[in-house]
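Report of the visiting student (M.T.), summer placement. My assignment was to run the structure pipeline on a short list of targets and document each run. The first record concerns ATP-dependent RNA helicase DDX49-like.
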Amino acid sequence: MADVVSQDTRGTTYADITGLQPWVIEQLNQLKIHQPTPIQYHCIQPALEGRDVIGAAKTGSGKTLAFVIPILQQLSIDPYGIYALVLTPTRELAFQIADQFRGLGSPVSLRLTVIIGGLDRVAQGAELNRSPHVVVATPGRLADILETSPEFTLKRIKFLVLDEADRLMDGRFDTQLRTIWAALPEKRQTLLFSATVTDRLQRMKQLATSEVFLWQSTNKQATVQQLDERYALVNPIVKDATMIATVLQHTEEKPRGLILIFTNTCKSTQKERLSALARFKSSQVKVLIATDVASRGLDIPLVELVINHTIPNLPKNYIHRVGRTARAGRAGQAVSFITPHEIKILLAIEAETRQKMTELKMDEAVVRKIMKQVNVTRREQEIKLNQTDFDERRNINKRKRLIMEGRDPDEEEKKKQKRVKKLRKAERKERIQLIEELEKKKKKRQAGKGSHISEGVADEKIKEPKSPIK
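After the run finished, the structure tokens were exported:
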């Protein structure tokens, strides 16, 4: 439990953190948060002192509150907007960070806005114009607004936070980050937090504008001790059925527990993702299927089982995935389904986490019993997906291209719908004509057949032989 409680934080409370104000401690107590985690205990005080901070600890160690607490306390002393900018790599994580700000920031009448792709850009621009205290954003949408709205400025921000900093700095967001850095003031306080430390840590350190406080968990094991890690060696043909059997067994044994299933691809729109996540958090649904987008930062206490339907190629991605359970001292289980060709990946993960997994044995009779139904259901859903256009990113890029070409995307969509409608009408007309022709041919054949029978009967009457009886 080194990332939740360590020797130097055992028995401590938030009151033991120098400089923390009483209202913050009281608000934490009301939220039933009484004991700081090591990263909170070590990083909050330097942040309150105005130092730049780099904190690294495994998932589930309370990194979010390590920057939320000092930002809210300093904001209460000198409130203005925009006071803090928090950058995060995923949309779902942005909403979760916002929830923690709102939960702790109610005594200071916090104004906050979330800026992410997939939502109305005009509405987001209007929210920014109202100068919220805190902006939580993904790099892409924020850079887009900065490039197209010269009146919007970030020159007065006091705090810059990079959550999941290793992923933000892995190269995929470099273009957007350059745009954002150019809009930031030179004098600011920078807080960087990450679960895994990469070679880019020194690059992160260079972003700091004052004396840097660096804290890193001393625990060598990359996953928490409360996590029960298992693997199931399966034939690809029965993988889905084995996974369903595992889900059914866990649901029967622990009906209140939530299950998070990771896979490589998951087709859905942004609104559908947010709706599914909200229902999962509130336990309206017990199982959520997600990609690695959900492997960073999501904190849902009731997640008791994480399943890797497809095991990730990179050990660090595995660490982030299984970190969605066994959080903040709770117990949890992670099950990874692997094929014989993926054993090398399993060994690489064990080497990185310094933890041997236990093999999970499933009842083959149960798997065989449900295999046919699972395969039929899977095929039905594949057909439905193939008939529906879920490619959101392609549609977004298409809209951008049309705008750059000087064409109205909405007008082009209307034209497309007219063409589709016209095409469907032509296809319907063609089907009707084809059916009518077939009906005519059928009637003609029946008429010809009846005529032939009548002629045969007439011939027989004409050629009727004479009776031998006179």
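Residues 452-470 have pLDDT under 50 and may be disordered. The domain at 14-216 is CATH 3.40.50.300 (Rossmann fold). I thank the supervising group for their guidance throughout the placement.
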